[in-house]
Structure formats: structure tokens, C-alpha cells
Design brief:
By secondary structure, the chain is an alpha/beta fold. It has helices at 10-22, 35-43, 68-81, 96-101, 148-160, 170-198, 202-208, 211-217, 224-233, 235-257, 261-271, 274-283; strands spanning 2-6, 27-31, 49-50, 61-64, 87-90, 111-116, 137-141, 164-167.
């Protein structure tokens, strides 16, 4: 099989590792706007060849793993380029605009929209990991619009690399992911910004930074290219989550100003229930 990976970063590089591991006689062809990423991917054996867009027509499968805004902007032209048997799978972090973009394309049945709930704060092909997808949820959107044989190949492959499949409506996906992923990244970015602006003596910051700060601000190391793209694509849902989040922050600020420590205690105690929710999710 000739499989293309467009976007050789954390996700694309990790997909390439799994392709090499699970598919016999696979030829992995890489496409990326970054010459450095392509060189790193080729030198490390993630890809066998570097290709250009015109070569998309000669692929059996094309995996789109570049920033989600680029996927939205380029997906129509990508489908125009492929042959009649090529399967295109996107791995973008938002789904609504992507699905709407290709809803009436003549080759819509050759496309599958997905989102792996997997990642780290690191980026680029050097961050690629063999274990990135094992035991992680793979969201599938509008699978009924994908040609059945192509869909079967994709689902079988996802299962073979240890992913847990879950079908979801694209609009619901984008609404929920804004809360559980996008908001946490924004919180981390703004916490990092606030601390750096307030504390000019960086040595003092790190001398006092415990595990709580480190785990909370970890996501602030994430790729600006990836996350500015996500925020643009899911703006409306993110604004709604921020409205709710800021309302809760204002409430907490008011409680502190009024020295209502009993209510602060109750708020923390109530929020502790998230432990049982997370524990239950792990067992599913």
C-alpha cells in the first residue's frame, strides 16, 4: 500500500510509526510545509519518500494531520486531486466546519472525519510516539457518508493500533471538546502568561513551582500553530465555554472578597465529585 501522511508532526509522525508496525509492505510518503519536519521524518525512518500535492493521486490512503484550519482550507482541493479509490482521513481537532466543507463534494464518500483524543504538549516529528494512540478514544463523525469498504479498512486499522472507537455528531463533538480540551489549554496558556508577566525573576518562579503548577501549566508548551488554528475553527463554542468559565471565576472572586470561606469550602467539596466521574470513565 502507498499511504501518504500530510503533516509530519506529533500526530502524523505517530501515525507513521503505526503504519510501519501494522501494515505489511507499506510505503509511507510524507508531505509537509516544513522542510525541517520532512528531513527529520525521513532521517528517522518515519517516511520512505517526500511527495508534493500532485502525488496525492497515486495514493491508496491519505492521512491529513496538519493544523485543523489548513485541513478545512485545503480539503476540497485535496479531494479534487485524489483518484477514485483513495481514502482520505482527517485527524483534526474540530469537525463541524470540516464536514460542512465537503458535504456536497463528488468524492465525499472517499472521506472520513476523525479526531483522536490523544496528544502531548510536544510537537514535530521528533515528538512522535509508538504508544500515543494505544487505549485512546478515536472519534468518528458521519461514518455513514463514507463508502463502506473504505470505512471498514479505516475502522479495522484504528482497532489494530489499540484505539477505542466512538461515533459522534460533528456539532456535538465541537461543543464538548471546547470544554474538556480547548478550555484547559486556554487556562494553561493564560496562567503561564500571568505568572511570566507578574514574576520577572524566573529563578524565583521555578524555585517555588511545585507539581501542581507544573501539571497545570504543562499545556502552555503546546504548539502555537496548532492551537491558534483550533481556536479559530471552534471560536463560537470556545466563547460560550469562556463565558461560563469567567462567570465561575467572578463568583469565586466575589466569595473571596466577602471572606465567605464556608462557601469556598463547599464549592471545592462539590467539585471533588469530578474524581468519581473520571474514575467511572476510565472503567468504560
Amino acid at each position: 500500500m502507498r499511504i501518504g501522511v500530510a503533516g509530519i508532526g506529533l500526530i502524523g509522525g505517530s501515525l507513521a510509526i503505526q503504519l510501519r508496525k501494522t501494515i505489511k509492505n507499506v510505503i509511507i510518503l510524507g508531505y509537509d510545509s516544513s522542510e525541517l519536519h520532512l528531513k527529520q521524518a525521513f532521517d528517522s525512518g518515519l517516511i520512505d519518500e517526500v511527495i508534493s500535492k500532485k502525488d496525492f493521486t497515486n495514493l491508496d490512503v491519505l492521512l491529513l494531520a496538519y493544523p485543523v484550519k489548513q485541513i478545512t482550507d485545503q480539503l476540497t482541493s485535496v479531494l479534487d486531486l485524489i483518484c477514485d479509490k483513495t481514502l482520505v482521513i482527517d485527524f483534526g481537532s474540530t469537525k463541524s466546519r470540516i464536514c460542512r466543507t465537503v458535504s456536497s463534494h463528488p468524492k465525499r464518500s472517499q472521506f472520513l472525519a476523525t479526531h483522536p483524543i490523544a496528544g502531548t504538549e510536544f510537537s514535530g516529528p521528533t515528538a512522535a510516539s509508538e504508544s500515543l494512540f494505544k487505549g485512546k478514544v478515536q472519534i468518528i463523525c458521519e461514518s455513514g457518508k463514507t463508502e463502506s469498504n473504505l470505512l471498514k479498512w479505516a475502522l479495522d486499522w484504528f482497532k489494530s493500533i489499540g484505539m477505542i472507537l466512538k461515533e459522534m455528531n460533528p456539532e456535538e463533538h465541537d461543543k464538548h471538546i471546547a470544554y474538556v480540551s480547548h478550555l484547559s489549554h486556554i487556562s494553561s496558556f493564560i496562567l503561564g502568561q500571568t505568572v511570566l508577566e507578574k514574576e520577572k525573576d524566573e529563578s524565583a518562579i521555578f524555585a517555588m513551582a511545585g507539581s501542581g503548577f507544573a501539571s497545570t501549566v504543562r499545556l502552555a508548551k503546546s504548539s502555537p500553530e496548532t492551537w491558534s488554528s483550533i481556536f479559530e475553527e471552534n471560536k463560537d463554542n470556545i466563547l460560550e465555554t469562556l463565558k461560563h468559565y469567567l462567570s465561575n471565576l467572578e463568583e469565586f472572586k466575589t466569595l473571596l472578597e466577602k471572606e465567605n470561606y464556608k462557601k469556598i469550602y463547599n464549592l471545592i467539596e462539590k467539585t471533588n465529585s469530578i474524581k468519581s466521574v473520571l474514575k467511572e470513565l476510565k472503567t468504560k
